[in-house]
Amino acid sequence: MTAATDLRKQVTEAKLVVVKVGTRLVARGPGELNAEFLASLVGQIKRLQERGVQVLVITSGAVHLGAGHLSKRSQQGGLGARQAAAAIGQPTLMHYYGGALADEGMVGAQILLTTEDMQDRSRYLRVRNTLQVLLGEGIVPIINENDSVSVEGVTFGENDRLAAVVAAALRADLLIFLSDQRGLFTGDPRSDPDAEFVPVVRPGDEVSQYAAGVGGAESLGGMEKKLEAAQMTVDCGIPLVIADGGEERILLRILEGEEVGTLFVPREARPSRKLWLATALEPAGSLVIDEGACRALRDQDGSSLLPVGIVQVQGSFKAGDLVRVVDEHGREIGRGLVNYSSEEVAAIQGRHSRDIPEILGHVGDEEVIHRDNLVVTG
């Protein structure tokens, strides 16, 4: 048995699977849905349910389906046009999902999410609880971003990140990205004949340079966004597979351990609160730390970030916000909730904790980020 085959065997034990479906699989063209693909997808979900596997779907396609009903002028209207297209396309999308599920004797449930739903801890937990009840009843949640009300600049941006957040919230056993590509290549196989397929990505492998191009005019993402979401997912201890959704029985073959698609091998799993910190929140700024602080966070279990290790503050944030922690080369080390505003951190950076009262004029926390509110990501 090869090392790759041995890694694939771990996937066969998955009991809770999140499947993200790309626009170019769901829709053939503006206003035209790929009913054949949906029937195949739902049929495979039915087979997995019969094997005791719970499945939920993150789906794209509403905006693309709705755009065909707008005039050419409206289609060029930016965020407003996208929101209008989503409002038109979402009922159509769910109608077809519902019909495909009914044909297999199953029931679906629509869940529309915004970033605010996941960034607020209490709302995040309510979303998780709802999904757990649905899955426990054998109902298939069909999830999409609520594009008709999402505000520009605070959206998920594409459903790859939304899928990673949902997978982390549910502590899924596996996340699968279905697209129109076989998986990850060393270049864009559509334009580079020398591009080589990458079957396995292990923790520490540098693959960001392989993210060539975007998904197309109908999508917001591409391989770059998939790799960002993949990194987030494996950092949470969840394996991920990118595969071609057009291949026959692709979900079943993945769960049977067949070497299809690109497998991203996970790191060690994290506690639930740190999964939320690592995925659901959008950083308000960054703290640049020195080499000694980097070593402490990486090597010393349960280490907090003290002001003495901070060399620069980037962005504007207030106490309680999430910030990125990066090294002096800009590489992310972790994320955490700060105890001080950006102005206060700038005043105490590089100083010992005992100096904080004198500098700020009041007694404060010894740590800029306490270990309980810090997750190491790199």
Describe what this molecule looks like in 3D.
The chain has 378 residues and is of the alpha/beta class. It is 38% helix and 19% strand. Helix 3 packs across helix 6. Strands 5-6-4-1-7-11-12-10 form an eight-stranded mixed β-sheet, sandwiched between helices. The chain has a five-stranded mixed β-sheet with strand order 14-13-15-16-17, with helices on both faces. A two-stranded antiparallel sheet has the order 2-3. The chain has two domains: 3-275, Acetylglutamate kinase-like (Carbamate kinase, 3-Layer(aba) Sandwich), CATH 3.40.1160.10; 283-376, PUA domain (Archaeosine Trna-guanine Transglycosylase, Chain: A, domain 4). Residues 213-220 have low confidence and may be disordered. The two termini are 31 Å apart. A hairpin with a 2-residue loop joins strand 2 (27-29) and strand 3.
SSE map:
Elements: H1 3-11, E1 16-21, H2 23-26, E2 27-29, E3 32-33, H3 35-50, E4 54-59, H4 62-67, H5 72-75, H6 79-103, E5 108-113, H7 115-119, H8 121-136, E6 140-145, H9 159-170, E7 174-179, E8 184-185, E9 197-198, E10 200-201, H10 223-235, E11 240-244, H11 250-255, E12 262-264, H12 272-279, E13 285-289, H13 291-299, E14 310-314, E15 322-326, E16 332-337, H14 342-348, H15 356-360, E17 374-376
Parallel strand pairs: 1-4, 1-7, 4-6, 5-6, 7-11, 10-12, 13-15
Antiparallel strand pairs: 2-3, 8-9, 11-12, 13-14, 15-16, 16-17
Helix pairs in contact: 3-6, 9-10, 9-12
